[in-house]
Amino acid sequence: MVLKTLAEAAPCLISTTGDMQTQILSLCIDSRKVQEGALFFCTPGMKADAHDYAPQAVKAGAAALVVERILPLDVPQILVKNVRQALSYMAAEFYGDPAEHLHLIGLTGTKGKTTTSYLIKSILEEAGFKTGLIGTVCSMIGEERLPSTLTTPDPLEFQHLLRLMADRGVTHVVMEVSAHALDMERVSGMVFDAAAFTNLSQDHMDYFGDMERYLTAKMRLFEAGMCRKAVYNCDDDIVRSAMQGIPAVCVGIREPADVFAKNIEVKETGYEFDLVFYKRARIKTHIRLSGMFNVYNALVAAAVCEAVGVEHEVIARGLYAVSGVPGRMEMLETDTPYRVILDYAHSPDALENILSAVRQMCQGRVVALFGCGGDRDREKRPIMGEISGNMADYTIITSDNPRTEDPHEILKAIEEGMQRTDGDYTVIENRREAIRYGLSMCRENDVLILAGKGHETYQEINGVKHPFDEKTVVKELLSEMRGR
């Protein structure tokens, strides 16, 4: 593709230098992966500025640069106000604007994005649409799974995925849109047929600093021109307040809502309730997921799908078809008199939700095992310790992904919160040994919650990702304990 075409795609273009007829063969954001004929984007970051790596990129074969300041290098350069924003628009242009051939549905919120995306995908497929999914656990084209590295991929991977989906006959794409992605312009230029705001609670304070900036990032999804139809959870006070003045469909249980659940009954396999649309249509619905938060996820999914034209009966069938989501309140097959649940809960609100949900179904003790990630929000550590101390019968504090931090310092911070309660607990830094202890101490009818890792299959320690799939770990430990 000609460089001039790419430059003109960026709304933040300031000027250009050099030969704009230069042929561009690929786009790149990592100087170590530059190939001959690449357009290299000098993205500024929190830890490093890619402008500093431009000489290496040119030496490796970069044909041109996208910059926020002109560099003393003898290659064509595109000067823009915001390299990240330019990247999103240029990547879309390079891949032939695949989103023009797709119906995009975006989900933002602290919790519930993954489960809600699976519910929406199920409903759309029940309606006969070939559906793609982009999210935390994986990306999917129909039933084909592709690995994910970020909740919302960088623009190069994102546009490549959309191109792949469009070429394979996908008509609808449901995707998780993180606050980081919105703040870093990863979806700039995209127009969503529908977007939903599930809820908001403390998370990612290491990046955003405060809740106001975190909320501001989320709200970018609902700016004029980015989203045709909006849905939000009006039972969440912060979300309800933020969405005031924006034309949107609200869902809820406590507050008056456009789409709501009535006559909710807890069943052994999940929940049954009347799904009511605008007080006009009512349909009996059964979801095979535990936890009241999944009723909210189902409401959001139903409202989004109704907004894009799916019939109510199809919505109900699509909701029922989902029996579980990887790493989200996932019941492991253990053949033990107690149950083991895997869940991605890694924030205070998420931990509280999973403990509350399990308490409703547990006839024995609730045993919580969790840690907190290193190099991330430090404020939540004692908060999560206090929550578990108050809500679980027993807590095992252990490592999550310590990354570059001393794991014992993380454990100490969690323990500070635990000590504000009367909760019983122990501290075992090694996560495998902590799980062994949890399995060995559980009795009949107890529930052991392995919180924090969810679908992840690694543990990151000192910058190295070590294989650690908790499903596999539990099987191995139970086999060892049984002497096999």
Any key phrases for this structure?
UDP-N-acetylmuramoyl-L-alanine:D-glutamate ligase; alpha/beta; single chain; 484 residues; 6-stranded mixed beta sheet; 16 helices; Udp-n-acetylmuramoylalanyl-d-glutamate--2,6- Diaminopimelate Ligase, Chain: A, domain 1; Protein-Tyrosine Phosphatase, Chain A
Describe the structure.
The model has no long low-confidence stretch (mean pLDDT 94). The protein folds into three domains: 92 residues, Udp-n-acetylmuramoylalanyl-d-glutamate--2,6- Diaminopimelate Ligase, Chain: A, domain 1 (3-Layer(aba) Sandwich), CATH 3.40.1390; 223 residues, UDP-N-acetylmuramoyl-L-alanine:D-glutamate ligase; 152 residues, Protein-Tyrosine Phosphatase, Chain A. α4 packs across α11 and α15 packs across α16. It has 484 residues and is an alpha/beta fold. β7 and β8 form a beta hairpin. It has 16 helices and 24 strands. An eleven-stranded mixed sheet has the order 9-8-7-10-6-11-12-13-14-15-16. Strands 17-18-22-19-20-21 form a six-stranded mixed sheet, sandwiched between helices. A five-stranded mixed sheet has the order 1-5-4-3-2.
Helix content: 25-40%
- Subunit organisation of the chains: single chain
The shape is globular
Q: What is the C-alpha radius of gyration, as a whole number of Å?
A: 24 Å
Quickly give the structural class.
alpha/beta
The main β sheet shows up as:
11 strands, mixed
CATH class of the largest domain: Alpha Beta
Low-confidence stretches: none
Q: Give the neighbour order of strands across the main sheet.
A: 9-8-7-10-6-11-12-13-14-15-16
Enter the CATH topology name of the largest domain: UDP-N-acetylmuramoyl-L-alanine:D-glutamate ligase
Mean pLDDT: 94
Please report which band the strand proportion falls in: under 5%, 5-15%, 15-25%, 25-35%, 35-45% or over 45%: 15-25%
User: What is the CATH superfamily of the largest domain?
Assistant: Mur-like, catalytic domain
| Separation of the first and last Cα atoms | 60 Å
Helical stretch count?
16
CATH architecture assignment name of the largest domain: 3-Layer(aba) Sandwich
Please give the domain count.
3
Number of strands: 24
